[in-house]
Amino acid sequence: MEKMRPDFVLIDLDGTLIDSVPDLAYCVDEMMKRLDMPVRGEASVRNWVGNGVERLVQRALINAIDGEPDPELYARALPIFKELYAENTSQRSVVYPGVKEGLDWLKANDYRIGCVTNKAEAFTIPLLKDKGLYDYFEVVVSGDTCSKKKPDPEPLLYAAKQMGVAPDHALMIGDSKSDVKAARAAGFRIFCVPYGYNHGEDIRAYEPDVVIDSFADLPKYLKAKGEA
Ligand SMILES: O=C(O)COP(=O)(O)O
Ligand SMILES: [Mg+2]
């Protein structure tokens, strides 16, 4: 593929920049214990992340990716999860290898970058700050910034508008089919990492433009400053 030079690079959070499942799984299991229900474990939680904390809590309660829990049980569970996650947002979470190197390369080569996530803002900002990533981004769009979350294109179009960039000059980097769908609907190009959370499916099945093994590989696909 010919190297590109997008005007804006918008990057997903969970499963792309940060492995946040260790904290999310800890909070899911603590919530389950407080509800006198069985714990679910990290492997299940890994398949349920990507559609926001509300959907994660619903999936944990029914122990399945599709379907709805009893509304009363859910109404009891959600505040418990939110309280736990507010205290356990980042300490077990890990920035993936190559991420800081890739972000430094983007900055050094004058790329403008943003972050888009389905995670609510109350958790997104502390997580990015705790991991030393917040200052890289000119715009951060969280799961509750717009009226709709990914796979809807609204958060991507909102970010592009904030930056004053045309969507067809923008690139999204993500890990899930929601990122691919949102990017296609918004008119962004889309790169994916293969190591994140795609509900147990191989992201290649969703045909992103490029699959990069790590952020350290970005210079293979993006033009450096001044590169013809
Ligand atoms: O599901 C979430 O809370 C966040 O997931 P995302 O950062 O991959 O959009
Ligand atoms: Mg993700």
TrEMBL record:
| Superkingdom, taxonomy of origin | Bacteria
Known cofactor(s) = Mg(2+)
Residues engaged in binding Mg(2+)? D12, D14, D175
Query: Quick check: keyword Magnesium in the entry?
Result: yes
Q: What does the UniProt keyword field contain?
A: Carbohydrate metabolism, Hydrolase, Magnesium, Metal-binding
Q: What is its EC number?
A: 3.1.3.18
Q: Which Pfam families match?
A: HAD_2 (PF13419)
Reactions performed catalytically:
2-phosphoglycolate + H2O = glycolate + phosphate
Give the pathway annotation.
Organic acid metabolism; glycolate biosynthesis; glycolate from 2-phosphoglycolate: step 1/1
What is annotated as the active site?
D12
Keyword Hydrolase on entry: yes
Task of the protein: Specifically catalyzes the dephosphorylation of 2-phosphoglycolate. Is involved in the dissimilation of the intracellular 2-phosphoglycolate formed during the DNA repair of 3'-phosphoglycolate ends, a major class of DNA lesions induced by oxidative stress.
The entry's protein name is Phosphoglycolate phosphatase
Q: Which organism is it from?
A: Sulfurivirga caldicuralii
